[in-house]
C-alpha cells in the first residue's frame, strides 16, 4: 500500500488539498501523465487537483512570470575563466533563508551563517535525492556516501 503526502514545501503551498486524492487523480490519467493532461484533469471544479491551480487568468499569468523569474535565477551559471580552463560552472544565486530574495554566491560564501544555511540545504537536497533514487541499484555506491 502506498500513501501520498506532500513534501515540506508542498504541505505549505497546498494547504487543504488531500495529497492522496491528488495522487489518485493523476494515476487515473494512465501509465504516464503529461503536465497538460494533469491541468486538463484539474479543470473540473469537483477534482481535488482543481485546488492546486490558480484559475484566475490575470493572477495565473503573474504567477507564471514569477516562476519564470525563479527559473532564470536557478538556471543562471557563471564560468570562472581566470582559473583552470576546466573549472566547473557554478550556480550564481541562492536563497539562504525563508526570505523571498536570492543572493549572489560570492556574498554567501563570505558570511558564515548564510554559508552554513546553504550547506544544510545542500545536505537536505542530497538526502532527498537519495530517497528519490534509492531503488536504482546502479546508484547504490554513490547513495551509500550520503548520510
Describe this structure in words.
With 147 residues, this protein is mostly helical. It folds into 3 domains: 53 residues, no CATH class; 36 residues; 56 residues, no CATH class. It contains 7 helices and 4 strands; from the N terminus they run H-H-H-H-E-E-E-E-H-H-H. The protein has a two-stranded antiparallel ribbon. A hairpin with an 8-residue loop joins strand 3 and strand 4. The longest helix is centred in the C-terminal third of the chain and has 22 residues. It is globular. The two termini are 27 Å apart. The model has no long low-confidence stretch (mean pLDDT 83).
Describe how the helices and strands are arranged.
Layout: H1 8-13, H2 19-27, H3 35-42, H4 57-75, E1 77-79, E2 89-91, E3 93-94, E4 103-104, H5 105-108, H6 112-133, H7 140-144
Antiparallel strand pairs: 1-2, 3-4
Multimeric state = single chain
**For the largest beta sheet, what order do the strands appear in spatially?**
1-2
Biggest beta sheet summary? 2 strands, antiparallel
Helix-strand topology string = HHHHEEEEHHH
- Mind telling me the C-alpha Rg? 19 Å
Strand content: 5-15%
Low-confidence stretches: none
Q: What's the end-to-end separation, in Å?
A: 27 Å
What is the tally of beta strands? 4
Structural class: mainly alpha
With helices defined by DSSP (H or I, 4 residues minimum), what is the helix count? 7
